[in-house]
Amino acid sequence: MKKKWFPHGKWPQFYVMLHYYTIVSFIGLLITGLALYLPFLHVALIRYLSILYDIHILLGILFFLSLFSPLILRLPRTKHIRIIDWFMPIAFGMAIVLAGMPLWQITWFSADWRETAFSWHGNLAYFLGFWFIVHGVFKAFGFKYPETQATKKMDPERRRFIKWGVTGLVGGVLAMTPFSQLFLQQGNRLGGTPGVNTSVATGVHDFPEYFTVTNSYPKVRIDKYQLQVDGLVAAPASLSFEQLAALPVTTETKDFQCVTGWAVPNVRWEGIHLKELVQLVKPAPDAAFVTFYSADGVYTESLTLQEALEADVLLAFKMDGQSLRVEQGYPLRLVVPRMYGYKSIKWVNRVEFARTRVQGYWEQRGYPAEAAF
Ligand SMILES: Nc1nc2c(c(=O)[nH]1)N[C@H]1C(S)=C(S)[C@@H](COP(=O)(O)O)O[C@H]1N2
Ligand SMILES: [Mo]
């Protein structure tokens, strides 16, 4: 007889089907989740991230339904499933799904909650992923679980599902509250380390937060720096910082507004207007969008060509008369004064003219692409 890789013993067909849904959705979640999270994958897949993101959400819903369907459907009452095999995915799955909510519906939650939720969504998924592997190996090779209270077989009672689901729910809520940041490494957090104060010169604004979506601020060596300007253009270019700074400079004083509520009035920016780059590389007539990339390898932003050519949109290299500090996007950041701060991508190292829009980092997570306030 052919060896079955996932023998389900005397399981009713219905259990087997549910179990497959759980397996397939969870593996899909791990793969898409890693692609969304790990920088080297993220960078390679940048154009497909919004699709991967949608798939991830759909799989999350499927995973959730497969775990909790016994609450709605009447499962056959047979003692076929071990307590731990049901407890682990339900309690941890619930916490992971819950911690995923602020990453999905980002406008419902504060930035603080999102940061913590982001870390726990990942940490708990790694943990449950590890348990799935152990569980899979045990089943595939027919190892026996030790006989304990937790490995007893049980009836699929609603009461238990609810109890475990609530355990996961409470765990998930605790994990998301900023309190749990005490247990997280600082470097693991999403979006910024408030109060980094690396020698702010007098007369230079200090912003309330210096965000990054990776666990550090990229350190760009100015002698190695190149701004790539390419895409649908007649003459792609790669500019050193010197060449860039030799272009005509525009100066403006504008307010800076973050979507999370803080604002900094009267910031003086000096930088290059996008029309200088347009003259240089000559975009094709159908290049309707501009995509900006960051040296952090993760963040992207986009504008329509028309928006990019607004008089006050700059690729800035100086703020309040000083060159940008590392945490502010040294050596070059975009400044879009009429839109929320998330449009103002830092550490810009590539400007691409394109026919279609590439979803920006926060836009993949639900913020509008037209971020005017
Ligand atoms: N590369 C990169 N650019 C970024 C961000 C980021 O996390 N990474 N955060 C954005 C957000 S949400 C805001 S409000 C501003 C904040 O600018 P600041 O970090 O200089 O205060 O930068 C934007 N540009
Ligand atoms: Mo922001």
TrEMBL record:
Q: Which UniProt keywords apply?
A: Membrane, Transmembrane, Transmembrane helix
Q: Which InterPro entries match?
A: Di-haem_cyt_TM (IPR016174), OxRdtase_Mopterin-bd_dom (IPR000572), OxRdtase_Mopterin-bd_sf (IPR036374)
> Where does the Oxidoreductase molybdopterin-binding domain start and stop, copy by copy?
217-362
Membrane-crossing segments per the record: 20-45, 51-73, 85-104, 124-143, 164-184
* Record has Membrane as a keyword: yes
Q: Looking at the Swiss-Prot or TrEMBL record, what is one Pfam family this protein matches? A: Oxidored_molyb
What name is this protein filed under?
A: Molybdopterin-dependent oxidoreductase
| Lineage of source species | Bacteria, Bacillati, Bacillota, Bacilli, Bacillales
